[in-house]
Specification:
Elements (H helix, E strand, L loop, with lengths): L10 H8 L19 H6 L2 E7 L4 H11 L9 E7 L7 H11 L3 E4 L2 H10 L5 E6 L18 E5 L6 H12 L5 E6 L6 H13 L3 E6 L6 H10 L4 E4 L3 H5 L1 H10 L4 E3 L2 H5 L4 E5 L1 H16 L15 E6 H7 L5 H6 L2 E3 L1
Parallel strand pairs: 1-2, 1-3, 3-4, 4-5, 6-7, 6-8, 8-9, 9-10, 11-12
Antiparallel strand pairs: 10-11
Helix pairs in contact: 3-12, 4-5, 6-7
Length: 339
Amino acid sequence: MLLGLGQQVRRREFIGVLGGATVGWPAVLLSPPLAAEAQQVNKAPQVGFLAMGRHPAFPVFVQALNGLGWVEGRNVVLEPRFAEPGKAEQFDQLAADLVQQGVDVIVALIQPEIIAARRATTTIPIVMVVGVNPVGQGFASSLARPGGNVTGLAWDADPEFTAKNVEILRELLSAPQHIGGIIDPAFPSTVGWEAAQRGALQLGLDLHGVEVRKPDQMEKAFAELRAVRADAVLVFGGSTLFGSRDKIAQLSMNNRLPVMFLYREGAEAGGLLSYGPSLPDLWRRSAIYVDKILRGARAAELPIEQPTKFELVINLKTAKALGLTIPPLLLTRADEVIE
């Protein structure tokens, strides 16, 4: 049985799937309530979770929540909802379902999920896991005091790190002239894109962006980047691109085109390297917000936080397959080298 992508995943059905081998997530994360605990569970707070596909953020979040004393089947009810990969339009219905369910807080993974949750409710607290420009998007009055029902973590609170990605690519390649950028328009990190463009301009490089809305558009994107003679590709954020990281890494090999991601999971999937915030760190920290809200804190008064952990990961296996030599100084700065 699949995870119920794009459907309303009811708690009992989801628990059964998670406890089996199909999903591959630790079975200890969720356990069905014992008969003696049934009445307590019925009164327990409900936590909704919105994400695209079988996202690895969910089990990390659940483990962090367990560590804070909230355990499914004992004192909390988890209500996950997952859209099908590349179908962000499903989030409106999934968010509306959570509101109708009467959840006490909604955890929204990334921008399409956050927007859908915000459209569905202005009263139920919403915790952003990987938010983008929350003040500019109108979700919050300020990072220090959001003032509404949205709080959590802002991935691009310091967008200039994307300029650092361009700088690293310049250091990696001997004489690059053109850098390609793959962008998910559903993840409107225009500030990060503009920072990358400024970084490219300062280094005398051309940055050419290609939009990818669905996974099946990836081959066309690489064909366009080859046509503009891109020397390397920088993959920006978004659920569709994150979920397509294996395919992107394979296309990188097929096209002999080095790819850099903004998250380590891309390098682990076979991309050449990555530099950016640690996503698992953000996934874990989102549970802290949920804990505070369930204990009485108001979302309006919980400051929106920034990433605090940035990682440079280099995949030497991929470098060898592409015939590239990583500069020694760049290797010494890496937080992890995959061999």
